[in-house]
Design brief:
With 312 residues, this protein is an alpha+beta fold. It folds into two domains: 145 residues, no CATH class; 80 residues, no CATH class. The protein is built from eleven helices and seven strands. A five-stranded mixed beta sheet has the order 3-4-5-6-7, with helices on both faces. A hairpin with a 2-residue loop joins strand 3 and strand 4. It is globular and about 60 Å long. The chain binds iron/sulfur cluster (SF4). The site of iron/sulfur cluster has 12 residues, from helix 3 and helix 11. Iron/sulfur cluster binds next to helix 3 and helix 11.
Length: 312
C-alpha cells in the first residue's frame, strides 16, 4: 500500500500571511472519528449536511447503491484495466476486452441497486448499461491513447491508495490516475514551440492528478477550482496540476476534461477545512443543513424520512 506524506508541510517558502494561517491552525488531537480516519467523501458529506454524515457514519446506516453508482463503478473498473494495459504494453487494451470488464463490474454492482432506482431518472437498466458501453468505448478509443500513467518507485499511478496525516487527522483515499502525458500546464502552441527548438517538456510539467467522473452534466470551472478532493490529491502527491476527466452521459456521449492548479495556499486551506471538520465530528456536532438546500429533499437525501419525518 502506497503511503502519502506525513503532514501538511508547505511545498515552498510561505508568505507572512500564509505563515499566520498555519500558526492559527491547531492540530486536531484526541480525535474521535467513526471510522478512525476521514476521506474526502466524508468531509464533503459533513460540509453538505452534518446531520446526513451522522446517519451515514455515526449510526452506520448505509443506503443502497444508486443506478449512477453501478454505472460509475463499471466505468472505473474498465478504465483501470486499460490504464494498466498502457503501462504493460504501451497501448490501451482492446476495446472489446475493456467493455467486457465494464459489463462484469456493472452487473455485480447492479445486484444491490433497488429495482425502482433504475427508473428514477426516466431510463431503465438496459438503457443505462448501453450508455455506459458508449462512454467506455469513447474513452478507450479517443482519450486512453493519449494517457501515460506515472510509474514511480515501481508503483503505477492508477487507483493509487494513500494514507496521510493532515494537521493530525488521518486521511485515506484512492487516486484514479496520475498522468505524465498531460497537456494542461502548457498550451499546445507552447509545446509546439518547444519541439521546434528541439526541447521536450519536462515530466513535472506534464504530470497531472486526475479523477474520473461519470455524470449527466459537466462540472463548471468553479467546481474544479474549488474541489477539496483535487486539493487533497495535489497535496498528497506534491503535484500542482489537477483535473477531472468526465464521461458525460448525454444524448451524444462526450468526454470533457476540466483542469486547474493548486498552490500552497490551497493546501493550507484544505488543512483548515479537514481539521475543522475532524474537531466538529469529534465534539459530536451534527446540525441539519439549510432546509432550502438542494440536498435537503426526498430525492437527494436518503435519510430524509428519518430526519424530517414523513412528508404530509
Ligand atoms: S433531511 Fe436535510 S437536514 Fe436531514 S439529513 Fe437530509 S439533508 Fe440533512
Amino acid at each position: 500500500m502506497a503511503k502519502g506524506r506525513e503532514s501538511a508541510q508547505p511545498l515552498v517558502q510561505l508568505t507572512d500571511d500564509q505563515q499566520k494561517i498555519l500558526d492559527n491552525i491547531k492540530p486536531a488531537n484526541h480525535l474521535s472519528l467513526p471510522k478512525g480516519y476521514l476521506s474526502h467523501t466524508q468531509v464533503d458529506m459533513y460540509l453538505r449536511c452534518a446531520r446526513q454524515y451522522f446517519f451515514r457514519y455515526v449510526r452506520d446506516h448505509k443506503r443502497p447503491p444508486s443506478a449512477a453508482m453501478a454505472l460509475g463503478s463499471g466505468a472505473h473498473k474498465a478504465l483501470e484495466g486499460t490504464h494498466h494495459h498502457i503501462v504493460k504494453h504501451g497501448a490501451p487494451a482492446p476495446t472489446e476486452a475493456v467493455l467486457d470488464e465494464f459489463s462484469v463490474s456493472f452487473e455485480e454492482k447492479s445486484e444491490d441497486v433497488p429495482e425502482k432506482a433504475w427508473t428514477e431518472g426516466g431510463s431503465d437498466k438496459g438503457q443505462i448499461k448501453d450508455a455506459g458501453i458508449k462512454l467506455v468505448r469513447l474513452y478507450n478509443e479517443q482519450q486512453a491513447p493519449k494517457v501515460k500513467p506515472q510509474v514511480k518507485d515501481g508503483v503505477p499511478g492508477i487507483e493509487k491508495r494513500f494514507e496521510v496525516k493532515i494537521g493530525g487527522v488521518p486521511m485515506v483515499g484512492v487516486i484514479d490516475l496520475i498522468d505524465v502525458n498531460s497537456t494542461i500546464v502548457l498550451s499546445e502552441i507552447e509545446v509546439k514551440m518547444m519541439a521546434e527548438k528541439g526541447k521536450s517538456v519536462p515530466e513535472f510539467m506534464r504530470t497531472s492528478v486526475s479523477d474520473l467522473k461519470v455524470k449527466a452534466k459537466s462540472m463548471s470551472q468553479g467546481d474544479v477550482d474549488g474541489s477539496l478532493q483535487l486539493t487533497l490529491y495535489s497535496y498528497v502527491e506534491g503535484i500542482n496540476s489537477v483535473r477531472y476527466d468526465q464521461l458525460l452521459r448525454q444524448k451524444t456521449p462526450k468526454f470533457k476534461q476540466v483542469s486547474s492548479t493548486r498552490t500552497t495556499s490551497d493546501h493550507l486551506w484544505m488543512q483548515e477545512v479537514v481539521t475543522g471538520v475532524a474537531k466538529a465530528i469529534s465534539a459530536g456536532i451534527f446540525p441539519p443543513c439549510d432546509p432550502t438546500s438542494w440536498v435537503c429533499s426526498e430525492k437527494w437525501c436518503g435519510y430524509f424520512h428519518q430526519c424530517r419525518g414523513k412528508k404530509r
